[in-house]
Amino acid sequence: MGNANVSNVTIRPEEAEFFADLAKDWWNPTGKMASLHQVNPVRLEFIRSQVDAHFGSDSRSIRPLLGKTALDIGCGAGLVCEPLARLGAQITGVDAAAENVSAAAAHSKASGLEVRYMAGEVAKLDIGTFNLVTCLEVIEHVADKTTFLTDVAARLAPDGLLVMSTPNRTAASRLLLVGAAEAVGYVPKGTHHWSDFVTPEELEALLADIGLEVIERRGIAYSLSKGLHLSDNEALNYILSAKKV
What is the pTM of this model? Predict the structure, then answer.
């Protein structure tokens, strides 16, 4: 997560601590982070389609990001970093919680993947810019969304591609993503604070204010027949791609 300067940090200490406590269980597909494992293929499907469209890569290529740099902000224990590494990217993962970074580094090493992990505020790290920046299920956890997005945009190369996903702030998300999901243990209690959710229109406006234009936006919905899938229904979650104007 990012900050504009040393005194104006966007990481909420309690949020970093909450997810740090989950670090040891992050790679367990049936553990406390099972919901992330279920949504990850859907997010990666969208990322792949946008990479091919933006960079002109062959949809049949197994390494479309070869020769390109990628940054995953709020990387957790590396659930997105590792697939991007397999797609050929020179990948860096940044997270507010050092425990997550340690878990991520251990897992990628055991998997034989080269991923650079760093802990802290993305604005404080001297890491340059990237062809692809991903920031998935993060903005709803930061204190200052405008400052955070400014820091995210600063990491994007002039011709770069940004992909973000986040829960929508709707009556449905309040009932299902916060109330029901936590009640049945689908996500750990305290994961979501509904008032911090951002609507697609709000996020598009925030991005426009810092010089980014949304390219594509899809909902992430659930049905009994399809499970989690990309959809026109944005009532619960959505994912978008953007570029510098």
Answer: 0.87
CA 86, CA 79: separation in Å to the nearest integer?
Answer: 12
Helix (H, G, I), strand (E, B) or coil at 217: strand
Please tell me the distance from the alpha carbon of residue 51 to that of residue 58, in angstroms, as a whole number: 10
Burial of residue 70 (CB within 10 Å: 0-12, 13-18, 19+) is: buried
Question: Is the separation of the CB atoms in 102 and 76 below 8 Å?
Answer: no
What element of type H or E holds 94?
A: strand 90-95
How many Cα atoms are found within 13 Å in the side-chain-facing hemisphere of 35?
Answer: 19
CB 32 within 8 A of CB 188: yes
CA dist., res. 219 & res. 240, Å (int): 9
Per residue in 99-157, pLDDT (tens digit) is 889 999 999 999 999 999 999 989 999 999 999 999 999 999 888 999 999 999 999 99
Burial class (CB in 10 A: 0-12, 13-18, 19+), 189: exposed
Averaged pLDDT score across all residues of the chain: 88
pLDDT tens digits along 63-111: 999 999 999 999 999 999 999 999 999 999 999 888 889 999 999 999 9
The 3-state DSSP class for residue 49 equals helix
217 CB contacts (<8 Å, ≥6 apart)?
200, 204, 234, 238, 239, 240, 241
Is residue 51 exposed (0-12), middle (13-18) or buried (19+ Cβ within 10 Å)? buried
Rounded to whole angstroms, the Cα distance separating 94 from 76 reads 8
